[in-house]
Amino acid sequence: MLARYFLKYAKYSSLALVALAGSATAEGYPERVVRMVVPFAAGGGTDVLGRAFAKELTEAFGQNVIVENIGGAAGFIGTQDVVRSDADGYTLLFAPTAPYTMAEHATPPATYDPAEDLIPVARIAAQPILFSVRSDSGFDTLADFLAVAKDDPGYLSFSSSGAGGEMHLTGEKLKQASGVDLLHVGYRGGGPAILALVSGEVDMMPVVTGSIMAYILDGSVKALATTAPERLEKLPDVPTMTELGYPEVDHIPSWGVFVPAGTPDEVVAVLQEVSEKTATSVAFVEYLDTLSISPAYLPGADFLEVLKVQADGFGELMSTLDLGQ
């Protein structure tokens, strides 16, 4: 089970609760509606997960947490909106790591400095990527797909939620590892990118489990491989990239909560405590399991260390790409 991959971080959660026990006392917070920005179009993996998390937060806070989708530029536009918002705890960002880790490497660079302008509150969940094709594509294995790509460079295409995002870069890692040339087509979010795959506009998509599982279960899409470290329980016939000889294509995206820099410490503490309780609740974990998403809570300080490592890892790859595609 993929959740075991993250169990080594569980000790941080316990320590965080002890540290917060008596510190999360922002009086009256929240007193009104909280806005949660999802920096991608509705229908994609971030939107699905963000709405589920917002529902749980609404119950925990006793105040509505309203999701607002602000898509474009691989999440940078919505993140910029959050950065420019008041640092009072009433605007949250629910996002994958890309708008934080890849901002300085984008072309052109994002108009914010994540290290200076954002505070990571908590990591919430993680989900592996599935290299997915239409069921009627004629490709039964990843080897079939790559064989055609090698015979006709640039003929096959793949979609992503935007140039410079994690799905795009995972596709680029596949290209580098296998030596093939694939045409990247970026969209304004995971939802439109998935529709492009299903409708036949593109041939393949590296896409997280939570976004594509419904299409796999209804038979319209099939997965050729996963970036998970082991085969998924719900897709036992889908091999891992390591099994197929591409261990370097192993990225597992994670999602978390961020607030603008300058948000009061006591508000951040409340958000972190509620985030942990929500992310580890039985109801939320059971919902994640239906999507083959793993709970992966980390408090802000530890999440920040993960972000730094990812930023270093993707920086070199991004410097070689034309992100205008």
Automatic annotation (TrEMBL):
The keyword Signal applies. Pfam families: TctC. Keywords: Signal. Residues 1-26 form the signal peptide. InterPro entries: BUG, Bug_dom1. CDD domains: PBP2_Bug_TTT. Coiled coil: none annotated. Gene3D superfamilies: Bordetella uptake gene, domain 1, Periplasmic binding protein-like II. Belongs to the UPF0065 (bug) family. This is Tricarboxylate transport protein TctC.
